[in-house]
Amino acid sequence: DMDLDAITKHSALHAKPSGLILQYGTAGFRIKAEHLDHVMFRMGLLAVLRSKQTKSTIGVMVTASHNPEEDNGVKLVDPLGEMLAPSWEEHATCLANAEEQDVQRVLLDISEKAAVDLQQDAFVVIGRDTRPSSEKLSQSVIDGITVSGGQFHDYGLLTTPQLHYMVYCRNTQGQYGKATTEGYYQKLSKAFVELTKQAFCSGDECLSLKVDCANGIGALKLREMKNYFSEGLSIQLFNVGTTGKLNHLCGADFVKSHQKPPQGIEMKPNERCCSFDGDADRIVYYYYDADGHFHLIDGDKIATLISSFLKELLLEIGESLNIGVVQTAYANGSSTRYLEEVMKVPVYCTKTGVKHLHHKAQEFDIGIYFEANGHGTVLFSKTAEMKIKQLAEELEDKKRKAAKMLENIIDLFNQAAGDAISDMLVIEAILALKGLTIQQWDALYTDLPNRQLKVKVADRQVISTTDAERKAVTPPGLQEAIDDLVKKYKLSRAFVRPSGTEDIVRVYAEADSQESADSLAQEVSWAVF
Ligand code: NG1
Ligand code: ZN
């Protein structure tokens, strides 16, 4: 049972700065670390309630992903390793914003609304990234858990997707894997080694990769994991956090948004490189060509490579499992066109934020989802998984080989969340199996030149959107203005939306040339003012 008076007393030790209002957004709460102590304590309380209500293990991750080192954040992970359910996001916002004297009342309110049985046991697992503030903040989460009578396991340093994996394992009675970092490494490396056994080029020639770890948790975890596949893949780690600052001039978000290589990595022409973000749930690839031009391979091209590989395997085994690719409005127009017209796979667009993509991807036997920024994974339905397992036993020769590959691919993809380590291994395996160089992969299609801008406005919520954020509904006249601007350029598209993680409006534009994309983005951002 919960001792509400003890909670109230303890809460005062994690007092909320008066007047501070926060919202549980697409990535949980995220601000400067010094304002987060009360939020962490309260998310400990909330995780206990959610655990009681779902009668499952709940996860709490302390991270601010690609944000600057001074920021931090927290998000809750639901029983199947998914993002917190929307109704509970509201509860989280209420609880985080409650004034000190109201905490008890809000807790009871949530318990009542969500029909939480307070007698139920609660279990919460916690993970954190490498930010200097993360350890203390995760202690505040633990404080909230223990004072409300919950049990917990603190995993300490973990990537975000590893925490999602742990939660998923624990709530599926170990069927998905062992809920330890070792279990995670074993599951992934076994699948990777089996998959690449059949690879065309097996020497270290083709399986060699440079990884920019954004000075974050990815460096620690990749280094641990390297021991599990001794010779299978040779990876060189850069920006491992010993000298540089987290996400500063490096990492997936920097590379994607600046469309240039990170600092702190040595790149030779045609060498395959990739960047993780600060909590290792995003990945982008890139290289310099022989003429010294930089080429970025983002989430859209990752999704395309994976889709084409999976489609080939399905064709080989002769089974008609349905595939769907899920993107957001930020997907490059060329990728959508290529997927639909050349590869003939159905493409769907959802709102920004992985929970939307994840949810949509669950509708298919094989749901491939990636945000352009490199956050994504592939989900396999239970039916698809069972069918593939069965075929791997029944079929013979080439067909059997294809089914076995699919079986390993299922194990290699994190089914709970987008995962830079897991995605990297899938990509490396596909390139090796198909004998593709990074240039050949890049050449699948040519990205339309594009530009993203951030615009500061007094109140970003005056902008509301529809059609998966591709059309502005308010303020009146904005969409018409954008339509008129778009008409001035060739192969053009543009949209605006309020960011869910920063106090800004994001502008996106693409067109036939970089100059056009830049000037369209600029003109649209003036229209926003
Ligand atoms: P916002 O700030 O709502 O655009 C950003 C990313 C999302 C997602 C979240 C969570 C872009 C344009 N937006 O959201 O895709 O990754 O952060 O980290 O990349
Ligand atoms: Zn991240």
Description:
This protein is α/β, with parallel strands linked by helices and 529 residues long. Helices cover 41% and strands 19% of the residues. The strands form five sheets. The protein has a five-stranded mixed sheet with strand order 1-3-2-4-5, sandwiched between helices. Strands 7-6-8-9-10 form a five-stranded mixed sheet, with helices on both faces. Helix 7 (181-196) runs antiparallel to helix 14 (397-412). The chain starts with a helix and ends with a helix. The model has no long low-confidence stretch (mean pLDDT 95). 2-acetamido-2-deoxy-1-O-phosphono-alpha-D-galactopyranose is lined by residues 26-27, 65, 330, 352-353, 371, 373, 375, 499-502, 506. Zinc ion is lined by residues 65-66, 160, 277, 279, 281-282.
Give the topology.
Blueprint: H1 4-11, E1 29-32, H2 37-54, E2 57-62, E3 71-77, H3 86-97, H4 103-113, E4 123-128, H5 134-147, E5 151-157, H6 160-171, H7 181-196, E6 208-212, H8 217-226, E7 234-238, H9 252-258, E8 273-276, E9 283-288, E10 294-297, H10 299-317, E11 323-328, H11 333-342, E12 347-350, H12 354-361, E13 366-370, E14 376-380, H13 382-394, H14 397-412, H15 420-434, H16 438-442, E15 450-455, E16 464-466, E17 471-474, H17 478-487, E18 493-498, E19 505-510, H18 514-528
2-acetamido-2-deoxy-1-O-phosphono-alpha-D-galactopyranose (NG1) is lined by residues 26-27, 65, 330, 352-353, 371, 373, 375, 499-502, 506.
